[in-house]
UniProtKB/TrEMBL annotation:
<protein>
    <recommendedName>
        <fullName>Glutaredoxin-dependent peroxiredoxin</fullName>
        <ecNumber>1.11.1.25</ecNumber>
    </recommendedName>
</protein>
<feature type="active site" description="Cysteine sulfenic acid (-SOH) intermediate">
    <location>
        <position position="80"/>
    </location>
</feature>
<feature type="domain" description="Thioredoxin">
    <location>
        <begin position="28"/>
        <end position="192"/>
    </location>
</feature>
<dbReference type="Pfam" id="PF08534">
    <property type="entry name" value="Redoxin"/>
</dbReference>
<keyword id="KW-0496">Mitochondrion</keyword>
<dbReference type="InterPro" id="IPR037944">
    <property type="entry name" value="PRX5-like"/>
</dbReference>
<keyword id="KW-0560">Oxidoreductase</keyword>
<keyword id="KW-0676">Redox-active center</keyword>
<keyword id="KW-0575">Peroxidase</keyword>
<dbReference type="InterPro" id="IPR036249">
    <property type="entry name" value="Thioredoxin-like_sf"/>
</dbReference>
<keyword id="KW-0809">Transit peptide</keyword>
<dbReference type="GO" id="GO:0005759">
    <property type="term" value="C:mitochondrial matrix"/>
</dbReference>
<dbReference type="GO" id="GO:0008379">
    <property type="term" value="F:thioredoxin peroxidase activity"/>
</dbReference>
<keyword id="KW-0049">Antioxidant</keyword>
<dbReference type="InterPro" id="IPR013740">
    <property type="entry name" value="Redoxin"/>
</dbReference>
<comment type="similarity">
    <text>Belongs to the peroxiredoxin family. Prx5 subfamily.</text>
</comment>
<dbReference type="GO" id="GO:0042744">
    <property type="term" value="P:hydrogen peroxide catabolic process"/>
</dbReference>
Amino acid sequence: MASALARRARGSAAVLWGAARGFASVGSDIVSAAPGVSLQKARSWDEGVATKFSTTSLKDIFYGKKVVIFGLPGAYTGVCSQAHVSSYKNNIDKLRAKGVDSVICVAVNDPYVLNGWAEKLEAKDAIEFYGDFDGSFHKSLDLEIDLSAALLGRRSHRWSAFVDNGKIKSFNVEEAPSDFKVSSAEVILDQI
């Protein structure tokens, strides 16, 4: 497989997965990179029952829209709670001013945990939260990481992307799950 491409973003290395890997990369279609995958919008258990535990297709999330999406290792974890979500929440007006239709947070968690976490962070009005309960979205994008040493199991790398009508325009992946150098809203704002 091809090695990851590296590029400077605000003085820090941003890893851009190469097209030769067969996974998502700048210029590729994020829906095609994760065929058959759907995500679960954050919600209460009762909302899950009422919607018959429905999922949302990637086509519905990405096609016909400008979307900023960021992934993180998990709800209620250090950097995720203290910095990553708040960087997007605090910059939502700037993102909207650049024409972004949706800002999405996705994590390898169930939609009920994400719902409780989003409410605790008071971020649901600004950011849409989606669960990747089985990790299939992140695995398809080659963004899965084993964090068993931290008692988290298979999770997501910390990353961000700007996606326009399904096409990935920028894609940033942190070198380590605890890093927060290239996946912030401030970096994405400079890339739109």
